[in-house]
Give the backbone structure.
Amino acid sequence: MSDVDWELLFRYYGNECTPAERETFERWLAQDPAHRAIVDAAVMAAGRTLQKERATIRPPRVLVAHGRPAPRGTWQLAAAAALLIAVGTTYIRKFSGWDGWPGSHAAPAMQVASTAPGGRTELRLADGTRVMLGAASTLRYPAQFGGGARDVFLTGEGYFEVVHDSSHPFRVHAGHATAEDVGTAFGVTAYAEDSTVRVVVAEGSVALGDSAIGARRQALLTKGQLGTLARNADAPDVRRVNVESYLAWTHGRLAFDETPLPEVATQLGRWFGTRVTLADPSLRTRTLTASFTTESLADVLSALGPALDVRFERTGDSVIVRAR
């Protein structure tokens, strides 16, 4: 843990980073699964500490408006202290969990499920919740849920069929956002390089909001709705969509519905484990509606060429898209 820049971590979660600092921190997170495991452990520990502190501290009489970071000395210093206490007396063991620290109950052992590019995997959590992970994704979750909230941490894409328990909320922490189950089945997309977290609801409803604010203070998504939350946005953008196309990956299909070409390129890269780049900026305005199942990358590119009026150049593990 000696390479953790704690001051940068505090600024990151306090929304005080410059764009360059944010990029540096997120690049560090993506370098090694151990980095994300360390941060997840610290954040969960800090959350417990802050919950205990809130019970004894009188609420402030002046609230800071959302979108404007609270001054240093409020929750950020409390979080920083909690993180230092928690992490300074703990260590991560092979991503499977961490030891407890003096004066508190042991933190839950954490399990990790991961997929490679183009892969998928399905698992059942201790509470019976069914989870499917998409390509190049990682889920960190307690081996056993305790008596409080059920918190899991996602990087990438996941689909959740939650066993609802109103007294024990189920929360998916993904990037800068938190999605909280309100009795539902839903998909979450939040890759490390994404600036927007996406949640689509197949059944029931989901509360979506910025992790620093709390999901219930943002937007309640219902069946058939897509919520997208950009970093530092005031609130999620919510609209009705064809949910089937957004969750086609759970059935082994790669589907696009008026999808911008840059996003198509990104999804192709994750699906086939290939870097796909657009050589011509004018291609960014083009969209695609199509569906593929067992086709190879070569077959997909052959079909997309005429449909998008583009040509593809393959070099090793990379594909360059050019206008005809």
